Automatic annotation (TrEMBL):
Biased composition (Polar residues): 239-249
Enzyme Commission number(s) of this protein: 2.1.1.228
Lineage of the organism: Bacteria, Bacillati, Actinomycetota, Actinomycetes, Micrococcales
Source organism per UniProt: Citricoccus parietis
Pfam families: tRNA_m1G_MT
Name under which the protein is recorded: tRNA (guanine-N(1)-)-methyltransferase
Length: 249
């Protein structure tokens, strides 16, 4: 998979050299290219922002440097993308986007080419997204209901969430199967050695060797944890019936 990231802070993306994503880059599983938006400006100050029309606080990113940067990426990718017939996906991190969930990461893991546009200031001139739809499948996505200073942290999170689903990036693919959000539930609690630690014991059942009972216990734990911490992930009927029935242990 190829991933291009456009930012005014290329150094922010150095974390992509580390750990499993860094290894996947070195092994050629992920072709990640970082671009400095300011390379697509033409003035002495390498300006990427200007004051907002209509007034208000803050600055807005100018569309032209973005268009030039995205055109250059689209042109460099044209041959490869033509082969698959698919347009690259342009991911635009923004708190006003749709929620980036595990299901979105799973969907994007099947793409050949992602481009991430890291906004700063009050965001990017809105006209860019309409323009970009000719070259890309544009998706405005939010990491969550809070506001960051820029899109770089969101890009790192999204690239890691998508990248680890690309075959070969995580050594043991089974470890991706039972994770939180893979089946709509949170993961069960996990424990390691020693079996007794500071007067706290690992649940007896995990030492039993009875795989059927362990699987059933883990599923119960997933449900109980999801009901208590994230009832919004469950269908309303299931949460109501639990409230009547009392907590699952
Ligand atoms: N004025 C914007 C608003 O209220 O929607 C917030 C702009 S924010 C200060 C600057 C940049 O940070 C955004 O353009 C986006 O790239 C990034 N950002 C901030 N919060 C984010 C979030 N929850 N998810 C994804 N990106 C976010």
């Amino acid at each position: 998979m190829r991933i291009d990231v456009v930012t005014i802070f290329p150094e922010y993306l150095q974390a992509l050299d580390v750990s499993l994503i860094g290894k996947a880059r070195r092994e050629g599983l992920l072709d990640i290219r970082i671009h400095d938006l300011r390379d697509h400006t033409s003035d002495r100050h390498r300006t990427v922002d200007d004051t907002p029309y209509g007034g208000g606080a803050g600055m807005v990113m100018k569309p032209e440097p973005w268009a030039l940067a995205l055109e250059a990426i689209a042109a460099s990718a044209a041959d490869a993308d033509d082969a698959s017939g698919a347009r690259p996906v342009l991911l635009v991190p923004t708190p006003s986007g749709t929620l980036f969930r595990q299901s979105v990461a799973q969907e994007l893991a099947g793409a050949d080419h992602l481009v991430v546009a890291c906004g700063r200031y009050e965001g990017i001139d809105e006209r860019l997204f309409e323009w970009a739809a000719d070259l890309f499948e544009v998706r405005l996505v939010s990491l969550g209901d809070y506001v960051l200073n820029g899109g770089e942290v969101a890009a790192l999170a999204m690239i890691e969430a998508v990248g680890r689903l690309v075959p070969g990036v995580v050594g043991n693919p089974e470890s991706l199967v039972e994770e939180s959000h893979s089946d709509g539930l949170l993961e069960y609690p996990v424990y390691t050695k020693p079996s007794s630690w500071r007067d706290r014991d690992v649940p007896e059942i995990l030492l039993s060797g009875d795989h059927g009972r362990i699987a059933a216990w883990r599923h119960d734990q997933q449900l109980a944890r999801t009901r208590s911490r994230r009832p919004d992930l469950l269908p309303p009927e299931s949460v109501e019936s639990t409230e009547t029935a009392g907590p699952t242990t």
